[in-house]
Amino acid sequence: MNNIEAVLFDLDGTLIDSEFFYFSNWQPILSSEFDFEITFTDWIQFFAGHTLVANVDLLKKKWGIETTVEFMWKETRANYAKSDMRTIQLMPHAREILEALHESPMRIGLVTSSYRTTVDTVLGHHNLLPFFEFFVTREKVTEAKPAAEPYLLACDLLSLPKANIVAVEDTITGFSAAKAAGISCIAVSKQESERAKLVDATHLVEDLIGVRNILL
Length: 216
Hints:
By secondary structure, this protein is an alpha/beta fold. Helix content is 47%, strand content 12%. It is built from 10 helices and 6 strands; from the N terminus they run E-H-H-H-H-H-E-H-E-H-E-H-E-H-E-H. It has helices spanning 19-34, 40-47, 52-63, 69-83, 94-102, 116-125, 149-158, 172-181, 192-195, 208-215, and strands at 6-9, 107-111, 134-136, 165-169, 184-188, 203-205. A 6-stranded parallel sheet has the order 3-2-1-4-5-6, sandwiched between helices. Strand 2 (107-111), helix 6 (116-125) and strand 3 (134-136) form a beta-alpha-beta unit. The longest helix is centred in the N-terminal third of the chain and has 16 residues, at 19-34. The relative contact order is 0.18.
């Protein structure tokens, strides 16, 4: 990928190890309010990488759970606040790849379905905010991933040919968004259920060292 001039990173599950944090805060709500139990494997397979709206819709359609976006927003945010998002750790080699890219001519952006408050809290805690030229967060777009809009906005901000931009994603949701926007995608995941969905990515690796080896 010698022509790449910009790298657009996803956040959750790609740069930060947040999926278990989200699962551990959703599951008590599902259990106490709806007598519904899911495992972490279920979370990765069905919920990871999706917006709150999409997950509430899934709960209704797949399991017949009647809840609302407003209720789940209030309950999950209350749990997140009690759990403290600053406890979320970086994915292995996240700092390493950002430092390496920062020393290269490549430009770095973040494209996430999380809100800017999450970005600022977690990446700010790890002192990684200065590595990014810009942040495309949930409140910046009308349609979140898997829609193309987040990546199209990032492409507009970069003003580069799409052939010179690559996304780094860990779920089929993010890959679908990048593909819909017309940019290549390096998929990075060790989760077998997710890797099986990502076989059409430009590259499929297990960790961020693999991503670094492709880009640098």
